[in-house]
DNA sequence: CACCAGGTCCGTT
DNA sequence: AACGGACATGGT
């Protein structure tokens, strides 16, 4: 049975939460979004003062956790406003952003694909990956594909991943999927950079988006721009820029990073 | 047509 | 430890 839950939109907005770059498994639908997570799917739509979550009844608890609905975001948002400057502006624009609790393997694969790549192309490649190796499902009259398991991904070779558009990242996917299928741990304590094709930035994204380690501040080309243009930074290395933000923002680093990413990417014209 | 995109690896200093 | 080129591919 499909069910719809209603939430206050103020700190839970569909558009900003989906478009702030944390997930690649979405499509616009019915004035909102059709979202995939692992084997499940849901619809998320904001209108007026409300946000509506539609999912199979048995999946409601899963998505309640997925959208991090047990956490008070007014304190986080308030702390960002107090910082002033670009961060305060970013927080106003992204007031309804929440950080999702995504599945570790899925997050790892998606962010391996994200490196040196465009978001539209990442989404398309993830879509082809699911269509090829996932299982067909249906939700609210829409066909979708689940995210493949590490075991299923481990059965394919690099040629396959090049064929779906992974480019030079194909070998990264093969080796990482096989390691995990063969029993390598993927938990909050795993040293993620030991996986082939996973550097500090991808590791930080997995830590933040799958394990909710909000003391992490992933630095990519957009956050480099923020650092230079909005914080007057002069350091060149990403390690130094990451250190700058994580020292400054502490436990709120991950939340503030999402405000800033959304703000910077939206203001590209 | 260069240049860039949610970087990482690897060989040189 | 730090730096720079190579790496696939499609959009601007």
Q: How is this fold's topology laid out?
A:
Blueprint: E1 2-8, H1 14-19, E2 26-29, E3 32-37, E4 40-47, E5 50-56, H2 60-66, H3 73-83, H4 85-93, H5 104-114, H6 119-133, E6 136-139, E7 142-145, H7 150-154, H8 158-163, H9 170-181, H10 200-209, H11 221-231, H12 238-249, H13 253-266
Antiparallel strand pairs: 1-5, 2-3, 3-4, 4-5, 6-7
Helix pairs in contact: 3-4, 4-13, 5-9, 5-10, 11-13
The protein binds a DNA duplex (13 and 12 nucleotides) through helix 5, helix 6, helix 10 and helix 11.
Radius of gyration, Cα only, in angstroms? 18 Å
- What coarse outline follows from CA principal-axis ratios? globular
User: Structural class, from helix and strand content?
Assistant: alpha+beta
State the order of secondary-structure elements, H for helix, E for strand. Answer: EHEEEEHHHHHEEHHHHHHH
Question: Which short descriptors sum up this protein?
Answer:
DNA-binding, alpha+beta, 13 helices, 269 residues, 5-stranded antiparallel β-sheet
């Amino acid at each position: 049975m499909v069910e719809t839950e209603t939430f206050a939109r103020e700190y839970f907005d569909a558009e900003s939460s989906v478009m702030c770059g944390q997930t690649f498994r979405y499509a616009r639908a019915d004035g909102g979004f059709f979202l995939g997570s692992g084997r499940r799917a849901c619809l998320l739509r904001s209108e007026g003062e409300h946000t509506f979550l539609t999912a199979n009844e048995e999946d409601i608890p899963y998505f309640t956790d997925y959208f991090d609905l047990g956490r008070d975001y007014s304190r986080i948002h308030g702390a960002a406003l107090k910082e002033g400057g670009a961060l305060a502006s970013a927080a106003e624009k992204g007031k309804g952003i929440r950080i999702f609790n995504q599945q570790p393997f899925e997050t790892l694969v998606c962010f391996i694909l994200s490196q040196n790549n465009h978001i539209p192309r990442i989404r398309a490649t993830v879509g082809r990956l699911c269509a090829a190796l996932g299982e067909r499902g249906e939700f609210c009259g829409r066909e979708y594909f689940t995210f493949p398991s590490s075991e299923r991904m481990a059965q394919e070779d690099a040629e396959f991943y090049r064929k779906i558009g992974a480019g030079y990242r194909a070998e990264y996917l093969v080796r990482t999927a096989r390691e995990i299928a063969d029993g390598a741990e993927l938990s909050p304590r795993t040293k993620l950079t030991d996986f082939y094709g996973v550097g500090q930035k991808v590791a930080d994204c997995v830590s933040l988006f799958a394990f909710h380690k909000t003391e992490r501040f992933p630095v990519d080309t957009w956050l480099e721009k923020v650092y230079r243009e909005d914080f007057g930074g002069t350091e060149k290395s990403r390690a130094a820029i990451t250190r700058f933000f994580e020292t400054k923002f502490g436990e709120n680093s991950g939340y503030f990073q999402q405000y800033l990413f959304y703000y910077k990417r939206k203001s590209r014209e």
